[in-house]
Amino acid sequence: MDDTEWLGAAFQEHRYHLRAVAYRLLGSMSDAEDAVQDTWLRLTGANTSEVENLGGWLTTVVARVSLNMLRSRRHRQEEPVGDSWPGPAQMALAGTVGGAGGGAGVGDPEDEAVLADSVGLALLVVLDTLTPAERLAFVLHDTFAMPFTEVAAVLGRSVDATRQLASRARRRVRGAPSPDRAADLARQREVAAAFLAAARGGDFSALVAVLDSDVTLTADATAAPAGRPVQLHGAETVARGAVMASGDAARSQLALVDGAVGIVSAPGGRLETVLALTVSAERRITAIDVIADPARLRRLRLAVLPD
To answer: Is 161 left (phi over 0), alpha (psi -120 to 50) or beta?
Structure first.
């Protein structure tokens, strides 16, 4: 076995852990995979002959890569949108990039679902309110038990400052969301998923069933075909519009939209439209805000969720 093959095999042993770290830091599976692939490239270009703990070294690298991505995201004031939940074919390709593929350690779609569910919608909402440094300090120390000395080295800060970052993040995570909030997010996700499935299938009856009888849909001028704002009222009227847009629904995904479950359309990874949903306690959609205006889209906090 040559050096490249050895590195590939060693990297593969740590791939799932690295993806878990990156996903918790970034909240996006596609960004997490990008971070892992970047880590592989850095490994192949580094002299690791004196590295005693390869797993620790790789964790530090993927954390630094993720931190840079978080900071860049904050600078752009936007969240990752696009194919954040790769299908089986993409997962197979992801496992072979750079020669570090194949064999044990490549997660299948069920593994990915377990990873996402272990984070939870509620925690993703809270993590999204943290600064990049707070998020990294909390995730690495509290979730993955990395010593503060190592976390501080990743952040380029003192150990005391890193402890304070983790403490601030911990207070936010413990303070919210409540169990009721978590249950509310689960309810929103169930209703949004039912709406998206019905829209994709052009199922008029299923759409009416998930919409409140007095539902209101508003669309900004960019989203409306006529180029001026539109407002629709009533379950049947809104359902007919959703059936006509079934092609768009086929390219859409569930997402967190400013902390609530909604729907985004981002073909090719380019954000085009966001549906902000309001869901009642009776599990009906009472309002839909269709957003396509670029200025409005830039102000949204988004994170794509698995279907």
So the answer is: alpha
